[in-house]
Amino acid sequence: MTDLPFPKSLPDFQRIFPNDAACAKYLENIRWREGFRCACGWSGEPYRFSSRPGVLRCRACKTDARLTAGTVMQDTHTPLSVWFWGAYLLTSMTPGMSAVQFQRQLGLTRYETAFQLLHKLRAGMVRPNRDRIGGKFPVEVDETWMGGQTRGEGKGTHHKTCVAGAVEIRQRKPKEDAGDKHSKAIPRRGGRYAGRLRLSVIPNRGAKTLTRFVSDSVEDRTMVVTDGWGAYDGLGEMGFEHLPVAERGEARIAEEYLPLIHLVFSNLKAWILGVHHGVDPQHLQAYCNEFTFRFNRRFYPFNSFRSLLGLAGSLESHTYEELYSGECKHSCASTG
Ligand SMILES: [Zn+2]
């Protein structure tokens, strides 16, 4: 399916998906690579209806096939072009948007329609990934406190929620730096940049909680870089190649040895504060999942576009094998 066109820019998008018919054709090509085939076995050129671009009728048994069946667009009256545009808007690493912004962007007259659309597309983002990261790539692991007010209770962590994060350390190959016309858009330190990410809301920073987060999120025998916090001490015995660095609490050292996960945390906080104006602890995991979804697909908007519309297929697993060719203009992708 990689040969199906996908827009690389906004003008590109408008050219490839100018109307409902173009979107329908796209869905048709995904479903029937060899041309239309009805469940009854008949294949050939089906009946088409200009007023109903999402429907193809078999010329033998007269059964209608709906192009949106099995996708998030199924059983809705919203035009295909609106769904496509909405999914495209959501796939960018731009901070995400409110239903009001979404309504305006999509030119929808009803707020409720925008809200429902956004809600359905988002549902595809908040399902957590189950596979573990790392393997041949080392992983940075750390925890951070989110939200909460200290209200004069002094320096500390009152009323806050703890989030654990693990992120792969990727290394750009030197030859790929050479002649890269986008290199200015990818600031990086020694070619290091973030690969896949996992985030989890955790009840405390104890040894049991943190080592469990690591074993749930990171493949066995991966090299795991953490700070000197004693709760991570058991990782070596669990079969990880544990690399504890530096004294805890020293910002300069943490910045040097755990730059990627710290960058992720600061982006996550900015995003939650800026877009969602803070989050109730009970919804924090869902927001972490959405952030992770965007982050892990930032080089491949095509994949997230398809995931959101419910069209995701075999492509998903390729994402990170092809990562090196990705371009990212967002600060969260680099080590600054
Ligand atoms: Zn048929």
Radius of gyration: 23 Å
Shape label: elongated
Distance between the termini: 35 Å
- Helical segment tally? 11
Poorly predicted regions are: 178-187, 314-336
Q: What would the CATH topology of one domain be? A: Nucleotidyltransferase, domain 5
Bound molecules: zinc ion
What level of helicity do the residues show? 25-40%
What structural class do you assign from the helix and strand content?
alpha/beta
Please indicate the percent range of residues in DSSP E strands (runs of 2 or more): 5-15%
Run of helices and strands: HHEEEHHHEEHEHEEHHHH
Q: Mean pLDDT across all residues, rounded? A: 80
Main CATH class of one domain: Alpha Beta
In short:
34% of the residues lie in helices and 14% in strands. The chain is built from eleven helices and eight strands.
